[in-house]
Each structure stands twice: as structure tokens, then as C-alpha cells.
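VWFD domain-containing protein
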Amino acid sequence: AFQYSCQNIQRQTCTISGDPHYYTFDNQIFHFQGTCTYVLFAAAPFSLHNGSIQVYQSGFSVAISTDFGLVVTYDSNHYVTISVPYDYQNATCGLCGNFNHHPEDDFRTPSGQILSSDLDFTSLYRSGAFCGILANSSGPFSTCQSRLAPQIFTENCVYDLCVGGGYQPILCQALNVYAAQCQQQGIQLGQWRRPGFCGREIPCPAHSHFETQGTSCPATCSNPSAPSSCPLPNQESCICDAGYVLSAGECVPEANCGCTFEGLYYAEGQSVVLGADCGRQCVCSNRAMSCRPTSYSTCLVEGLGTYHTFDGVMFSYPGACGLTLTRVMGPSQLPNFEVTVQKVPRGPQDFIRVLRFDAEGTQVSIEMADGGKAQVSSLFTLDTKLFQCFLMAFVEQY
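Predicted C-alpha cells:
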């Protein structure tokens, strides 16, 4: 048959007595008289599922014990003991020390510095110095406490701070969570950041500065008047300096803003591929978007008798006096151009071939002469082998 047996839990005790004397978990002894409320012991909070907390008389003291082994006694006068299981080694902070069996480092600060003065050490653990500042009725968060109960935020702060070994940025982040929740409800807080404690100001990117009550709708290139119509409450934020606005996450002079194109904003100099078929490469320059195709199609004419269309169809046509090879069809936002070829009579039995380009008002004519030469606008000549390349390059460009 199964038998149940009980075993004593190995534990360590912190004692506070007299006026007053402190004996830490690691048996470090110091003496300190203070006028504030102090944190004697803090650890990660436990969720007690089907557990129990007992309160009872123990000798001349009142004792509180939990099912995870914590026992606290107080004689209502000058004697307090806190006994914790060995599970809490290296997991405590406060005036009772860190419980790591090294009494020489009990005066360790959250940043890791070991202090030589018990006065300096105890000042770190005033209940308002760390997470307790959230519940301090005369502290910077007091205006929010009636609207947003600080208890759960304080417990989360203690948990995070102890798990993180007292690392101050963790504390600052925990306090900032409560501050942000308060500000989201439109509650204005006191100045809880200060030099040496979470920093009075947060480092901000170039051309911006920190504001404790900054707008939640910063001015941007696409909406420079956003702060004046912002429906959201103010919050801690980095705000662009006067004369600067946000452009793609950076503060830039208003004159250096980018482009708003097809309903989207692009920073100055930004290059992007657009279109469902990724057919346009666009660049923002001087607040205007310029685009070009990412690929091309070519129409080819061989000997003015064989034709290859843009879509690859080949056919033959002996020709006529004038032919339109290609032009922009109908009203269009695309640059307009037209390419034609003509046979111009020269004498009773001869003619010359003239290829004409007309693009956005600029006209170029190529006249094929005897001997395989091509005269272009009477400025220079091309070999006939280059004629097709010249035509192809022009068509590809547009």
C-alpha cells in the first residue's frame, strides 16, 4: 500500500529586529534607520491554483504562510522574519539581499555595482524607488491610479525586474507600459523620468526631439497638418523639429519631401517597380514620379517589304507610297509618337525611301540614298546595316 510522508523544506530566513537591524538571507548584517516604506523582499509572483494562504498566531507574532513555502512573521512591534525555500536562491531582491550565499555582494545595485554604504543601498529600495512608484499615491502616476488600478502593473514590474536581475531598462519599460496605458485614456502624468532614472529624455533620430506629451499624429509629407486634426490622445514620442516633417520614417525639410503617386507616398530618390505585371520602374525626383518600362517589345522591318509586329507576327507587303509603321492609338497619357515610311518619286522611274519619326513635337527624317547610305536630317550619314538598328532603338525607347 502507498504511504505518504512529509519532509521539512530547506529554507533560509531574513530577519529585521530592533531599531532596526537587518540580517539578510546570506547573513549580512547592517543597521539602518529610515523614514520611508522599503522593499524587504521581492520575487516573481506565483499564481496559486487551488492553493492556500494561512494566517495564524505563532508565539508573540502573526505568521503568514503559503503553499509554496514562504513564511512571514511579524510581532507588530520590532521583529520581522521572512523565510523562503531554497528554490529562491538567486531570485530575490530588496533589503534582505539576493540569497546567493555570498554576503559580500548583498549591497549589489540593479546595475551590478556593489555599494559600500548601507545608506546608499537602502535608498535604492524605498518602495517608490522602483516598481512601487506606480502605486505611490503622491508619485507621478497618482493622477491615473483611480482610473487604471496599478496593482497588476506593479506585480508585472516586480516579476520582470527580478527575472532580469534588476536591469534598469527592464524597469523603465515596465513603467512605460503603465504610462502609455494612462495616456491612451487621455490622462496627463507627472514627470516620472529623471536623470539617472529612465532618462529625462529619450534619444531620438536626427532632426527630432523627445516630448512627454507628443502628438500621436505626426506631421508627414503627405499630411503636414495631421497634428491639428489628430483624434488620438498625446503620448511620449519623438517629434520632428520645426520645419521638418516625416518622410518614410525620417525627418526631412519640407522642401525635400517626396512624391504622392497613385495614392501612395514615396521618399525623394526612392525607386520602385509598379504595375500588376511589374512593368514600370518609377523614381521619385523633385516631388514628381517618372516611370519607364521594365521590358520592351520590338517591331522590325526588313527591306521595307517584310514586317515583324510587336507581338511576333511576320508578314510581307510590297508597299505603297506611304505607310504608318506605328503610332500611339487614340487619346493616351503615354508620350505621343508616330513612325511612317514613304516612297518619294525622284524622276520618272526612280524614288527614294524616307523614314520619319515624330515624337512629342520633335521630327527626324532618314532618307535612303544611292550606294547604301542613309542621310539623317542632312546632319550625318549612316551605313544601311545600321538603319534597322536605328529604327529598333527608337521604337524601343518609346
